[in-house]
Amino acid sequence: MARGRPPTPHRGDVILAAALDCFVERGFHGTSVPEVAQRAHIAAGTIYHYFDSKDALVNALFRKWKAEVATRVVAKFPGGAPVRQQFRVMWLEMFAFALAEPKAFAFLELHHHASYLDAESQAIDRGLKQFAEMMVQRAQSEGVIRAGPTVLLMELVFGAFIGVVRAHQDGRLELTPEACALAEQACWDALAAGHGR
Q1: Do 42 and 85 reside in the same domain of the chain?
Q2: Mean of the pLDDT values across residues 73-96?
Q3: In a domain? residue 56
């Protein structure tokens, strides 16, 4: 390698990046392996040296980005802090991911609960949900978050989160730090017993 030249990306990473573009633009069923290969500037057969099938490719991509979300959230999660602080950290880390990696965020939402995800991908997704569910249940037991079905409360907040990110991606909303803070506070208020800060 010539001195000063940036390292060449691993071909598997190039394929995953091309697949991300294609799946976001066309969806899983609308994307073919040759289209991914064309986007990656490689021969279609080369993909099969790295991934056995299109299903294997989409699962590798899903696991890559779900693991990135998990790493961000877990690394910053303040385990011994009050629930209010934990919620804020999780929210802001999710926002940071969505803003830094808009295609990956769109991909994860497009492929949420998809029938072609394998057991390993589903387990990673389930693990993230269980992490959040345990936090909500503990907060409910402490009387910090209102009573009610945990999944319902989580989906209300996550639905609002996705809506805000999509409004930003569509150009309908500028996600300034102040707007992020306002959205986070509004979602916490929807959960909080007595709307406490």
Answers
A1: no
A2: 90
A3: no
What distance in Å separates the CA atoms of residue 84 and residue 197, rounded to the nearest whole number? 7
Mean pLDDT of the 11-17 span: 93
Share of the chain above pLDDT 90, in %: 62
Alpha helices in 41-82 (DSSP H): 44-50, 54-76
Task: Give start and end residues of each alpha helix (H) in 1-53.
Answer: 11-26, 33-40, 44-50
- Report the pLDDT value the prediction gives residue 51, as an integer from 0 to 100: 94
Domain of residue 34, CATH code:
1.10.10.60
Distance of alpha carbon 102 from alpha carbon 123, whole angstroms:
23
pTM of the model: 0.85
Q: Indicate whether 111 pLDDT > 70.
A: no
Report helix angle 83-100 to 102-110, nearest 10: 100
Q: Which amino acid is at 145?
A: I
Residue 66: count of CB within 10 angstroms of its CB: 20
Q: Which structure tokens are listed for 65? A: 């980005």
